[in-house]
Amino acid sequence: MDKVKVAVLGGSGYTGVELIKILLRHPGAEIVAITSRQDEHIADLHPSLLGRLDMRCEPFSPDALQAKGTQLAFGCLPHGNSMESIPPLLDRDIRVIDLSADYRLRDVNVYQEWYKEPHQDAKNLAHAVYGLPEIYGGRLAGAKLVANPGCYPQTAILGLAPLVANKLIELTGIIIDSKSGVSGAGRTPKLNVHFPECNESVSAYAVGTHRHTPEIEQALGDIAGEPVSVIFTPHLMPMDRGIFSTIYANPTRAVTESELVELYRGYFAGQSFVRVRTSLPATKDTVGTNFLDLCTKVVRGKVVVLAAEDNLIRGASGVAVQNFNRVFGFDERTGLM
Amino acid sequence: MDKVKVAVLGGSGYTGVELIKILLRHPGAEIVAITSRQDEHIADLHPSLLGRLDMRCEPFSPDALQAKGTQLAFGCLPHGNSMESIPPLLDRDIRVIDLSADYRLRDVNVYQEWYKEPHQDAKNLAHAVYGLPEIYGGRLAGAKLVANPGCYPQTAILGLAPLVANKLIELTGIIIDSKSGVSGAGRTPKLNVHFPECNESVSAYAVGTHRHTPEIEQALGDIAGEPVSVIFTPHLMPMDRGIFSTIYANPTRAVTESELVELYRGYFAGQSFVRVRTSLPATKDTVGTNFLDLCTKVVRGKVVVLAAEDNLIRGASGVAVQNFNRVFGFDERTGLM
Amino acid sequence: MDKVKVAVLGGSGYTGVELIKILLRHPGAEIVAITSRQDEHIADLHPSLLGRLDMRCEPFSPDALQAKGTQLAFGCLPHGNSMESIPPLLDRDIRVIDLSADYRLRDVNVYQEWYKEPHQDAKNLAHAVYGLPEIYGGRLAGAKLVANPGCYPQTAILGLAPLVANKLIELTGIIIDSKSGVSGAGRTPKLNVHFPECNESVSAYAVGTHRHTPEIEQALGDIAGEPVSVIFTPHLMPMDRGIFSTIYANPTRAVTESELVELYRGYFAGQSFVRVRTSLPATKDTVGTNFLDLCTKVVRGKVVVLAAEDNLIRGASGVAVQNFNRVFGFDERTGLM
Amino acid sequence: MDKVKVAVLGGSGYTGVELIKILLRHPGAEIVAITSRQDEHIADLHPSLLGRLDMRCEPFSPDALQAKGTQLAFGCLPHGNSMESIPPLLDRDIRVIDLSADYRLRDVNVYQEWYKEPHQDAKNLAHAVYGLPEIYGGRLAGAKLVANPGCYPQTAILGLAPLVANKLIELTGIIIDSKSGVSGAGRTPKLNVHFPECNESVSAYAVGTHRHTPEIEQALGDIAGEPVSVIFTPHLMPMDRGIFSTIYANPTRAVTESELVELYRGYFAGQSFVRVRTSLPATKDTVGTNFLDLCTKVVRGKVVVLAAEDNLIRGASGVAVQNFNRVFGFDERTGLM
Hints:
- The structure is a homotetramer of 337-residue chains.
- Chain A has helices at residues 14-25, 42-45, 62-67, 81-91, 108-115, 122-125, 133-136, 151-165, 195-198, 212-224, 257-267, 313-328; strands spanning 4-9, 29-35, 72-75, 95-98, 129-130, 145-147, 174-180, 203-204, 230-236, 243-249, 274-277, 292-299, 302-309.
- Chain A is α/β, with parallel strands linked by helices and 337 residues long.
- Chain A has 2 domains: 4-127, NAD(P)-binding Rossmann-like Domain (Rossmann fold); 152-311, 2-Layer Sandwich (Dihydrodipicolinate Reductase, domain 2), CATH 3.30.360.
- Chain A has a 7-stranded mixed beta sheet. Chain A has a 6-stranded parallel beta sheet with strand order 2-1-3-4-6-5, sandwiched between helices.
- In chain A, helix 1 crosses helix 12 (313-328) and helix 8 (151-165) packs parallel to helix 10.
- The longest helix of chain A has 16 residues, at 313-328.
- The first copy, chain A, is globular and about 60 Å long.
- The mean pLDDT of chain A is 97.
- Chains in contact: A-B, A-C, A-D, B-C, B-D, C-D.
- Chain A binds chain B through residues 173, 175, 177, 179, 181, 197-205, 207-208, 229, 231, 233, 235, 237-242, 244, 246, 248, 250, 280-284, 287, 297-302, 304, 306, 308, and chain B through 173, 175, 177, 179, 181, 197-205, 207-208, 229, 231, 233, 235, 237-242, 244, 246, 248, 250, 280-284, 287, 297-302, 304, 306, 308.
């Protein structure tokens, strides 16, 4: 079988380079182009790619991508920018897996409320598939446009899905206390992620205002079949990568820990990348992998869910390849084990 | 005025060395002895003390401490060990500020439930003062035995005190999600705090079973005048020092953020070491100091309190000196600014 | 072609787990046994292996390994222990790639001098191949016993090989100033690698006495055809993995930087895993890979070589698989890209 | 005695905030002004100063500083900027301790060679005192302009001074391999010091071109009474603060380690802030202090000196206060213990 020709849009950031590394190992994908505003060899932007990929970044051009036979583009562009760049690709029959937030929220009003700008591409938004394979896997085969899920939301959605699906918890007031490594903030230097500022320090940010909130609520609402509301607090951790979410929910009836383990194991049976554990997870157990680790506890009548993942792989580029595999009919694990 | 002659019991750990450094700057204290089972020069145990303190550790001996004129001993011993060592000091009229957990819980049954061994010194427990100066300050002057508070509890108790005192929140189901640097785990090498294990990783531990839980509840119960119950989840952060607690509570009536700031500023008016902020705190802002930083938010109807401190200073040795200052009538800030 | 049946001896440490992860991706290898004194499931020792390898550790038994058809054993045992365990395997026609130091030094007197104990297996030492493929590659095909090289020595030997081979530098007084991440110290908790001790700190250790010194000198002597002597100073860096060596040598004649680049590119032409760079390397560029990055500078008449690698992969388990590939005739890069 | 009125020029960076913290503890200094282009409260720039200093930054104005009775200004400005700002202060009889590089190099040609711009203030350069108290202490009392020494140079100069003064080593080809924490790169966000870039990584930079080279050589030349030349290689370490220098020199005659210890102890006898050790130093032993730790070894005929300091305190703001103390006749240790 011929390899699928793929392009990476926006190759200069952290999700771009992770994606490239995974694709280089993928037997069914061939990178034909990497776009960037920085007109440089990809290995000059990311020296870790020296000797692994001999390719120069090119300016974004839908025609040039089409001319190269691109079948799918991974979008690693900033939100806002994505919804400008993607329509001309779709018009040329190039599929897209978009790692930005632009096609995640179905309701343009919710988008505008949280992103403070109007959505520009309601047409394609209408058919975009939210790419969380464990929940929306059935819609991924052959999808034209996949909205790759956010890093935090995956821990929250998968961490809560079995509870919400079974109405085992109250659907309001769910607390999601998340801790993320610094790579989640991107590669643009800023004071808050300047090494001597954030090293050896823990802080909260965007308390009550983080844009992943509506994304979490949309997916949990889908699972529940009714609205869900959460309090989501992200924190910055002094480490490169990894997200750990500690989730607190009020059960609707008394539950035991063994019952929860059974529930989670059943819910995720057959899923390649969700590990339901009885030991407490650590982000390090997941670093470099596409696994998301879950552990459930009952503490003084509350359900506590502990979720860990690598924010760049499971949280972004790994799940993007998992989606790619499902879109093109590869084994979901291809390139990811 | 003569300097107060003090001894440090258990000088080989992290709280011991922090205490020594603070005391070396304190104009009203003179270290007359450091005890340790390790028969070594203190600067061999802690090379940072080279050229700053020329003293050899000695075995613990109440008689020897008395012979040196010790007026107060800081106990940096493990729990269990403390309640064996402290009674003979009190019998010799040596005051004690105990940094262990042995005299923090007033109810010996609660002690036994959480520490899995019977309390051995109910007699002195009866008069021990819980050394959280902002709450129990009135009882500290002249105290014979001060139970220095735990590191996590201070963030939780002070973070919640104004709310609990005013019955502004429900007193059950309060969630305290705490993140601590590794020094909180002590200086004994173990696999979970071996550098390559915990570096670049975040994990939860002792979920639902951490011994600081009853300590938090006891103090909050004192403030509320009725029982308080909390869900406390500690996490290990890849950094040396610092605790960040994110606290979630259900208000009993609608509150605004500005109202909370005013409430907190009023409650802590005149306190030297509590900083009520409107900006989000970071542990780094407090490292090396005795300050505890607090910020309050209202998120979707919940009150969120963010608290940060240096776990070794504010969380242990700094507040111990703050207690020392109050016991002997020094300005509370002496040696701590 | 059938997969080669391999065993991992000593699976509880860091080189063991890295090796397992690489072998799981290797299309030509099948792990049939992992030995450890810890009678546990491998994923309990290393939670990162959850869902990736379902295997229980077993006690070391040459007969049991033979019964499982083991064709090659990777030895991840401590030195001393290795030379006891390996002879019975070789006697059973099980090949060995030994990651310990036991078969690296050809001269048993040198071994005794640096390791402070007599060598116990001179017989097999006589035919062991020092497994640095770029230098001794010709001897690896079909080798029975490969002494996998040390982490530091690879940076020094490959960093200096082109200079020494061409007698472009003086062969005495070469300075090798190396900086290593903490995983190089192994997985046994000790005070010097306890997180709060070594985090946020840089220190030197084993100054003038590190056992990698004779290993470096032996290989460089082979390349030079005459004795070489070095001053080797290892340092501990506050990071998980990575070695950076800064090497200073006196050229025997004036050299230019461009001449050195050409020399190095020529010397390593065709090598898969040595990247000769003109930009300054960083250990991060190599982390997670089997690459060793080299850059040469001329500073005030001295040659300065900068070398970077991942100490656990290129420095141990990756090069072990590179050796495995050469022993069994696989493409050298199999499982390593 | 009245306190000396001091100003801090350029309060927004790391040396500025460290200096402020030290001065707040200094019984003989009163901060009357902090200048910055950022028109903000100092605690908004540095939240760690909350509750410790209630002062707004002001634009730099020599007249305003004079009007406030400023007796001495600490210059924490970038080089180039310093030599523009300092002359008008000196003209108003305000003394200056300049933490920039502008007045360190006596020879304007050397300045131009390394800093790539002409020196603008030869007049004041002529009377500037290089503020390394252990070497130039005799010239500090009453000095009008002190050029505070660089962070790296102090480890190199003090590390080599006893050897150079006694002509115990060859004066050319001395190798100084230095490792620094990231705060040494300043507070301006840049890609190379962006957390996910430099965390968990070691790299060299400015190999052969670092501007501290001539500063080291000038001071060592003064001590030797003849030219000294060094090869200086700085490295970036993944930690906030600390410098570790490993220095290699060729002795002019055979020396023993015990002889070196004696030499160093004699040379630094009576110095408050140099600790000559027989144990290997670690930067952590010095963090938060003004101490510089030295240890000497003899390895295969070479002298190896190991030097450690806190780059922000001993390497900048601490030694600035040490200089301040000497200029105004305070005990050198005031505010620094």
